[in-house]
Amino acid sequence: MIIIAWSRSNKPHVRNRDLTMNETWTVRKLIAWTAQWFADHSIASPRLDAELLLASILNCSRLDLYLMPDKPVDDHERSLFKSLIRRRIQREPVAYILGNKEFWSREFIVSPAVLIPRPETETLIETALTLTPECEDFRIADLGTGSGCIAITLALETATTHVIATDLSMEALAIARQNAERLGAGERIVFLHGSWFEPLNAVAALQSFDCIVSNPPYIRTGMIESLQPEIRMYEPFNALDGGLSGIDAYEVLAAGAMRWLKPGGRIILEIGDDQANAVETFLLNASFEAIDKIRDTSGKYRVVTGRKVCRN
Ligand code: GLN
Q: Does ligand 1 come within 6 angstroms of the Cβ of 161?
């Protein structure tokens, strides 16, 4: 049995306490202990993480934990909980430990094959929804779909859109398909395997899109090693790596979108906060007009959009 010490700090009276001692561990006590243990290990949100992990073991919501602070947590539950604590101490993200992550108020399955959906990506969703009219047969392509969070959210938030989602990773596509089925968007999305636009040729050669969206990899290769361990050790490298200058994907996406969009169609791209000007240049070079740079809730540039000229 692995003993987890109470604290790494120099507190002789508590140093050797552990979760298996023969005493009553209540929900409240266990959360306090774990939050302190995580804080000692420089985990960024120690209490939240402790609560999420314990709630998953007790099969309840975080709110439920507050409603039963004095409930005892038995030996079996504590031993399961300890294995999750150990994974978190190794810096595995909570989303991978739990196997899910909330995005746009829906729960998405995630695994290390897909990037964990980020709140920043909700800016892209808001932008796309603003630009999506209520009309029949509105066609959207989501390139590099990962968990499918963008494609699925757009399909579910609009009544009549048809969505095609592509990804280079078969493992990611399996997760995205699973998410679409579970969330009730299975009928509305076609998932295709391949790089960016390439798989569209097989199914949509004679068709075109009203909107092309993507949250491509945009971290400079040389930066990845300096990211927090949760990202650099666990998230898929290919979903992060934007090449030497971080912007490789945007040039491909801008050029391809000009080919695949209907006249008047929009490209909507998530970007790193220092990439707005570079991406704007790619869109201008590809002859997009009405370029707009949009900030996220923290005031950073997060999305760039452009429109294909309206004449044929
Ligand atoms: N589209 C997915 C997301 O936004 C995956 C993005 C990626 O892998 N770069 O989370």
A: no
Domain range annotation of the chain? 4-90, 112-308
User: Is 185 in contact with 160 (CB distance < 8 Å)?
Assistant: no
Residues of the chain with pLDDT under 50: 1-16
Nearest CA to ligand 1 atom 4: 215
Contact 52, 95 (CB under 8 A): no
pLDDT reported for residue 12: 35
Residue among 283, 212, 206, 221 at smallest CA distance from 250? 283
C-alpha 55, offset from chain centre: 21
Nearest atom in ligand 1 to the alpha carbon of residue 218 is: 9
Task: Give the pTM.
Answer: 0.91
Q: pLDDT value at position 18? A: 62
Q: Would the CB of 147 count as within 6 Å of ligand 1?
A: yes
pLDDT number for residue 193: 97
CATH of domain 4-90: 1.10.8
Ligand 1 close to Cβ of residue 215 (< 6 A): yes
272 lines ligand 1 (CB under 6 A): no
CATH class of 112-308: alpha beta
